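Subject: mismatched residue count in predicted assembly?

I count 616 residues in my input, but I want to confirm that the predicted structure covers every chain. Input:
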Amino acid sequence: MSSATGGDRGLESSLEASINSTCSYGSTRARIFKIIVIGDSNVGKTCLTYRFCTSYFPERTEATIGVDFRERCVEIDGERIKIQLWDTAGQERFRKSMVQHYYRNVHAVVFVYDITNMASFQSLPAWIEECKRHLLTNDVPRILVGNKCDLKDSIQVPTDLAQKFADLHSMPMFETSAKNTNDHVEAIFMTLAHKLKSHKPLVLSQPPENTVELNSGAKTSFPCGC
Amino acid sequence: MSLRTEPGRHGSEFRRRRKLCDIQRALAKDPPDVATLRRMAISEGGLLTDEIRCLVWPRLLNVSTEELPPPPGPELRVNNKDYEQVLLDVRRSLRRFPPGMPLKEREDLQEQLIDIILQVLARNPQLHYYQGYHDIVVTFLLVVGGPLATLLVDKLSTHHLRDFMDPSMDNTKHILNYLMPIIELVNPGLHDFMVRAEVGTIFALSWLITWFGHVLSDFRHVVRLYDFFLACHPLMPIYFAAVIVLHRESEVMECECDMASVHHLLSQIPQDLPYETLISKAGDLFVQFPPSELSREAALQHQAERTAVSTFKDFELASTQQRPDMVLRRRFRDSVRPENRNKAVLTKPRTNRLVKLAVMGLTVALGAAALAVVKSALEWAPKFELQIFP
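Triage response: the counts match. Full output below for your records.
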């Protein structure tokens, strides 16, 4: 029935495979940063992780069931780093009994909401609470990402509201679009990787100018042309 | 196919025609010969065409097709607690529809898909929607059409899928706990490697709760598996999951021994799996290591979580006895009660006979699997038998 869909899958797998293959750097073992991506159903967690790991926007994604995994190798200050993104299901029933296993040894958390869906923003306290329950330490870096800012006409969550919320929880906040190529998805994850590499609080990190063109800081919110 | 020699092709064509005749004959009997239909659904090629599936699937589920439900009115979607989530998932399920299908036709089917899901949920308020349920329902919709799909999915949801539709996914997790013991029995080395990698079992979650509908691109493979699962015990999907992992042993063992690598490898299911071989292997495994033999193993590992579940379960109605997880739990309880030890011994010879049958060859093994499934279901859950196996 579906040679075309089969082709699609093939494309996605081969893209993931090609990304993965860049992770084999001979004998040197890359350091691994494990990042979990959480948030309501349909906020774009899968698209964001795809965009970062494969540099393209998947036109057709489906509901994530359980946990999906993507990774990409990057080089930061001459060190090779493997960034593992764990893309989780949004439906509440999955996170209650299924997802705990994947919180183990997590280095950072990315909370995602959809700027065109107020309910997804209002769910954030529950996601933060859930994250606290699973993570033993409080110093795991967390960032807040408002996705879909290409949909300018449907914005429901004003930037300043999100920024206030992020400040309250001491997280950097970014607005972006996994769909637009110039909307900093790369920079967001790279900022996080820099932060993890430097082991300093994100507010203080100054990524080298030649790698990521942005200054990370608690007040950061990317202008995305909205 | 094209590589096969002429006699081979004729041979397979001959087998196909004979199978068609056998199915027609079994359907024409009064009452229909469900045991034969079950064997046909399991054995090579399954039920062959969607036309046959329309006739046989209702028999396998013991659903009467005389009165089809009327299409629901618009009030179904009003103030419906599941509507939003179902809508999100169905809108994103484009891959499940044949490529090249006209947009209008696909959109109509998606609307029907939403209606079927909401109708079944409305008729069974004890059931809870889960992401992935739509992958199962769409398969029935595409094969048998809306009205009949509603009836079949209704029956399936209160039986085979019942545990996945609890308020929580604890029972689903419990069923996943049977994966590793099956792998251990067949290939202890692979099992140990996976334990050391701490890979867990979530890579198989979508396989189990969508009957592989979520992960296989080729619809023909999906419906072939549905033939198999509809004819078998509700726990067969977890045996099939184990068989896939076992089939990929060398790939797994070449992985780095860590959770991410192994999870990543296993969750990317190859699209060119030898389905018929794997189906017959899963049938053999089921005969050789029936759930009753595994339940103790899995139970000992997860006693704490099971106790909590059992306590909760005591409040539930008799219908719970039809659930796959309930079946396992009962077997566990039975097996630890001293007065039931003798019973277990008494049933042993039958099991041995089936195991012997199973090693005699592919065809025999599949026949034996079908037999074991029917008999085991009867033994484990009489109510299940009455409703599902006429």
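The longest helix of chain B spans residues 6-28. Marking this ticket as 'not a bug'.
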